[in-house]
Specification:
With 415 residues, this protein is of the alpha/beta class. It contains 18 helices and eight strands. The protein binds iron/sulfur cluster. Iron/sulfur cluster binds next to α7.
Length: 415
């Protein structure tokens, strides 16, 4: 077994710019609340952000706030408050930690950004159930609490091939959002502005894809843990120029690492793939553990979820419909297995880590025999970690550490 040594996470220089970008994003929202303008739309992380931006809304993403609640571990204190009003400990812990935080009048934004005391209240909330129904329930709670309209798109689930029928169904729902949004925005949708926003979003997606693909280099310049941080602009700023500038700089830094032989994990010995949600409250611990074990988690379905190859400025509604239905989380198990097979080959992966997230069955793929089928078909071993995205009551540090160490030892023996 690899010996535990003092190791340090190699930070990317772009992290400084990222901090500034995110600060600008949250201060802009806060300022809009105080000034009463521009209007604010809440959007699910793979919802129709392009449409909202093109209509002049500032866009806020509650899941991003959920991740902050998890990473700051404030979630541990706020989840029970949502449980107490009837939200089961088994439903999405982004939802429970966020609603609990609202009921407690707390937000991690206050500690991160001086002067911000609350999350930005929405003028409208817009969801897409492509990830799960929890987002719909989550937004409905806020809509009711603050008497704000909640609009949404109900997506297909378990999709194999994405057909024109799927695309037409979702495109129709997206187009139907326009009249009520125009009424709330007090302005008509400018088709040219929508095309431009979709174009920027597509470019953001292409750059983010390139960033993630640098991890195919051996040794990898990037880890999954880095990507959970640097994905923020792809989520909250897609459709803006600043996101493109950011990813161009990050990409240049990663390419320089490759050229200089700089590895994210010094003396990289093993390469793993992470399937499922991150464990936000343990990112640093897990990143450090894998560093100690000279093991790089090189890729993940999670970070790849903000790659939208289908976006096309010349066909905005249909291409948004396709992009948001082609998502991994929306797809059937046979599709997912083929996708994972391709990722295993592209990133030269030795093994898979499946995260069985207690409160997110939607983004948990190990409960219906997938790891076993992949092992049988491809001979790629895996482990399943029991945990959760935000609820650390579902996670054991000791057990996870022991499991991961044993798994890496097994990989070493195999080698
Ligand atoms: S996909 Fe999972 S983590 Fe994301 S909102 Fe839905 S239940 Fe929560």
């Amino acid at each position: 077994m690899a010996e535990a040594k003092a190791v340090e996470i190699k930070k990317l220089a772009a992290a400084g710019t990222l901090r500034k970008l995110l600060a600008d994003h949250f201060y802009e929202l806060d300022q809009a609340v105080k000034a009463g303008h521009p209007k604010i739309a809440w959007c699910t992380s793979v919802g129709p952000a392009e449409l909202l931006r093109a209509m002049g809304f500032l866009v806020y993403f509650p899941e991003n706030h959920g991740a902050m609640l998890g990473a700051s571990r404030m979630a541990t204190e706020t989840i029970p408050t949502a449980n107490a009003i009837g939200y089961s400990p088994e439903v999405c812990s982004y939802l429970t930690s966020d609603i609990g935080a609202c009921l407690q009048n707390r937000t991690p934004l206050s500690a991160a950004y001086e002067g911000i005391t609350a999350i930005p209240k929405p003028d409208v909330l817009v969801y897409n159930t492509n990830q799960c129904r929890d987002v719909q329930d989550w937004f409905a709670w806020y809509g009711q609490r603050w008497s704000r309209p909640v609009l949404g798109v109900e997506c297909y689930r378990g999709v194999g091939e994405v057909t024109d029928v799927h695309v037409a169904g979702i495109a129709g729902q997206l187009e139907a959002l326009v009249p009520p949004l125009e009424e709330i925005a007090g302005a008509r949708l400018d088709p040219e502005r929508l095309r431009e926003t979709v174009r920027l979003s597509r470019q953001c997606s292409d750059l983010w894809k390139e960033v993630l693909e640098t991890a195919a280099a051996v040794p990898s310049p990037l880890t999954f843990f880095d990507s959970t941080i640097h994905m923020a602009p792809a989520v909250v700023l897609r459709g803006t120029q600043v996101a493109l500038d950011y990813y161009r700089a990050l990409l240049a830094e990663l390419k320089a690492r490759i050229a200089d032989g700089v590895a994210a994990v010094a003396n990289e010995q093993h390469r793993l793939y992470w399937d499922g949600m991150p464990i936000w409250g343990r990112l640093r611990d897990l990143a450090t553990l894998f560093l100690e074990l000279r093991t790089c988690v090189v890729a993940s379905t999670y970070a790849n979820s903000w790659i939208f190859n289908a976006l096309d400025p010349d066909d905005p509604f249909r291409s948004m419909a396709r992009a948001y239905t082609e998502l991994f989380i929306v797809r059937s198990d046979p599709y997912k297995e083929k996708y994972l097979e391709q990722m295993i080959a592209t990133f030269a992966v030795d093994g898979l880590v499946f995260h069985d997230a207690k409160t997110c069955p939607n983004n948990t793929n190990c409960r219906h025999g997938m790891p076993q089928r992949l092992q049988e078909r491809l001979g790629v071993p895996s482990i399943t970690i029991s945990g959760d995205l935000n609820d650390l009551r579902c996670y054991s540090d000791e057990q996870t550490r022991t499991q991961i160490e044993a798994f890496v030892e097994q990989l070493a023996e195999k080698r």
